[in-house]
Amino acid sequence: LVDSFTSTDALILDPFCGSGTTCVAAELLGRRWIGVEISEDYCKIARKRVKEAQEQFSLLDSSKNPIILK
């Protein structure tokens, strides 16, 4: 859906981020994104998944310097 309904310069807002699936998709497609989640447990899961996606993306494209969430 992210690929089909957004342009490459889009900013994706996921106000109910959960485990971060939309954020991961946006990251892998090179979109800017904001994820909001009230549950700290889900925030930890989402951070981990996005970090893994960033690391995977940097292996595929060494010209990219991913931003790692802290």
Description:
This protein has helices at 2-5, 21-28, 40-60; strands spanning 11-14, 32-35. The protein has 3 helices and 2 strands. It is flat and about 30 Å long. It is mainly alpha-helical and 70 residues long. Helix 2 (21-28) runs parallel beside helix 3 (40-60). Helix content is 47%, strand content 11%. Helix 2 (21-28) links the parallel strand 1 and strand 2 (32-35). Strands 1-2 form a two-stranded parallel ribbon.
Helix coverage percent: 40-55%
Alpha-carbon Rg, integer? 12 Å
**Overall mean confidence score, pLDDT:** 86
Provide the succession of SSEs. Answer: HEHEH
Poorly predicted runs: none
Beta fraction = 5-15%
Instruction: Note the total helix count.
Output: 3
| Counted beta strands | 2
- Report the structural category: mainly alpha
Q: In which order are the strands of the major sheet placed?
A: 1-2
Biggest β-sheet description: 2 strands, parallel
Highlighted features:
two-stranded parallel sheet; single chain; 47% helix; flat; 70 residues; mainly alpha
Summarize the model shown.
The protein has 70 residues and is mostly helical. The chain contains 3 helices and 2 strands. The chain has a two-stranded parallel sheet.
